[in-house]
Amino acid sequence: MPDAKTATLVVDKDFVISEIDPRLYGSFVEHLGRCVYGGIFEKGHPTADRDGFRQDVLDLVKELGVSIVRYPGGNFVSGYNWEDGVGPVEKRPRKLELAWRTIEPNWVGVNEFARWASKVGTAVNMSVNLGTRGPDEARALVEYCNHPSGSYWSDMRISHGQKEPHRIKLWCLGNEMDGPWQICHKTAAEYGRAAVEAAKVMRWVDPDIELVACGSSHPRMPTFPDYDATVLEHAYEQVNYVSLHSYYGNQENDTANFLAKSLEMDSYIKSVVAVCDTTRARKRSKKTLNLSFDEWNVWYHSHENDRKITPWTIAPPQVEDSYTFEDALLAGCLVMTLMKHADRVKVACLAQLVNVIAPIMTVTGGPAWRQTIFYPFLHASRYGRGRSLQTILRSPRYDTKEYTDVPLLECSAAHNPEKGELSIFAVNRDQSADLALECDLRSFDGLSGVTHTVMDSRDLKAVNTKDAQPVKPREAAGAKLDKGRLSVKLPPLSWNVLRMSAR
Ligand code: AHR
């Protein structure tokens, strides 16, 4: 790559892509590995509260500002009997959990999770089992969670000590039903029909709920996008969102190519939007279907370790990726990509939240700490609120093994008129040179007080551990704002947040 580089950016307050749905900054807690047990919940931990929830983890989750949390799976949900997780804990069964080959003790179930979510101040996105089970159990769960009282399941909830309904608004109709690895995987037609009937009866119990139908479990599935199209052919009018999942890795240790993988997320989103809109046209529908990107992250470090795990134990250290600085850069590019699609992506979940491919790690019985990917998510969730703005970008570009025309600069912008703030997020993908960024922001009146937060590192493979967390953001000097023009140098391989007051 050449040396001295400049990128130019125009951000206009009237070029609004969309209001950003707060649920864009969601996450995911699955009964998998140490996400629940040893993660959010650990009886006897020095920081555990009366309910057994780790306060150190609660504090970090609150810091992240997660707006909604998907639960209880994931692959787990396709074999889960939710009734096993309610009522007196000592009477709950221990069961073989077939998705991850563990023992599920059911110490935490829907009531405990909803209590944890309310302590965090986050909403719950509940998934129902459309693998081994179907509409009957799904409607019973909606009744248990959301019906006030005076029926079999709602009165059972009250008898379990939960008088107030949980009022869970967003529900996933199963998980990754296209995947042969799924417990009771279904063809698109089988799943489409099951989703329609589950949706119908769930809504008859609570007409206010919103529903997510499963799309493909990633865009490299041989059945993508036909699976999505067939599901929507059946369920378009019954659901509010279609789901997308995708994980990215750097198995080839090719940084330039790895950092371009957000382009793949971008094209995946565009393809699913096209499927939704084609279905709308075919059905002569007036309804626009939106997207729930309810699993996204980097995932590849733990694959080898996971092959060595002994089956049928409780909460083994499974799927525990230790994230590098380089991973944080891609996580930043991914969250910016979601922001740029805020007109159609209304829900997104960083998968997952604690220990399992997570921004937060814990030692069972020990401390909790922030992984490298914590920070881009934190900044986006904290400052990427309000309106997502179109960015008109001119940037030098490069080619990689899999992608062409990759801009050295990846960026997104959010204007929060309520708070009077403009935030620009940017990754410089250049591996060796600063990128001089010139922004034309003249449409904003009275811009002032620019701050520049940077996360960079001399070591691409640097990780945070329980003992040391070298990868963290710092405040940088040198950004200049003059008459609506912002000039700043972005260090090579860096995550950047530029914030200004904007009337
Ligand atoms: O997040 C880990 C797993 O990835 C989930 O259980 C599944 O839905 C996906 O394949």
Topology diagram in text:
Blueprint: E1 5-19, E2 26-28, H1 55-64, E3 68-71, E4 95-97, E5 102-104, H2 110-120, E6 123-128, H3 135-146, H4 152-159, E7 170-173, H5 188-205, E8 210-213, H6 226-235, E9 241-248, H7 255-258, H8 262-282, E10 290-298, H9 303-307, H10 325-340, E11 345-351, E12 360-362, E13 368-370, H11 374-383, E14 387-394, E15 397-398, E16 406-407, E17 409-416, E18 421-428, E19 435-440, E20 448-456, E21 474-476, E22 480-482, E23 485-490, E24 494-501
Parallel strand pairs: 1-19, 2-3, 2-11, 3-6, 6-7, 7-8, 8-9, 9-10, 10-11
Antiparallel strand pairs: 1-14, 4-5, 12-13, 14-17, 15-16, 17-18, 18-24, 19-23, 20-21, 20-24, 22-23
The chain binds alpha-L-arabinofuranose.
The site of alpha-L-arabinofuranose (AHR) has 11 residues, from loops.
Description:
The protein has 503 residues and is of the alpha/beta class. The protein folds into 2 domains: 6-15 and 388-502, Golgi alpha-mannosidase II (Immunoglobulin-like, Sandwich), CATH 2.60.40.1180; 21-383, Alpha-Beta Barrel (TIM Barrel). Helices cover 25% and strands 27% of the residues. The chain contains 11 helices and 24 strands. It has helices at 55-64, 110-120, 135-146, 152-159, 188-205, 226-235, 255-258, 262-282, 303-307, 325-340, 374-383; strands at 5-19, 26-28, 68-71, 95-97, 102-104, 123-128, 170-173, 210-213, 241-248, 290-298, 345-351, 360-362, 368-370, 387-394, 397-398, 406-407, 409-416, 421-428, 435-440, 448-456, 474-476, 480-482, 485-490, 494-501. The strands form 5 sheets. A 10-stranded mixed sheet has the order 21-20-24-18-17-14-1-19-23-22, with helices on one face. An 8-stranded parallel β-barrel has the order 2-3-6-7-8-9-10-11, surrounded by 6 helices. A hairpin with a 4-residue loop joins strand 4 and strand 5. Helix 6 (226-235) packs parallel to helix 8 (262-282), helix 8 packs parallel to helix 10 (325-340) and helix 10 (325-340) runs parallel beside helix 11. It is globular. The two termini are 39 Å apart. The structure holds alpha-L-arabinofuranose (AHR). The site of alpha-L-arabinofuranose has 11 residues, from loops.
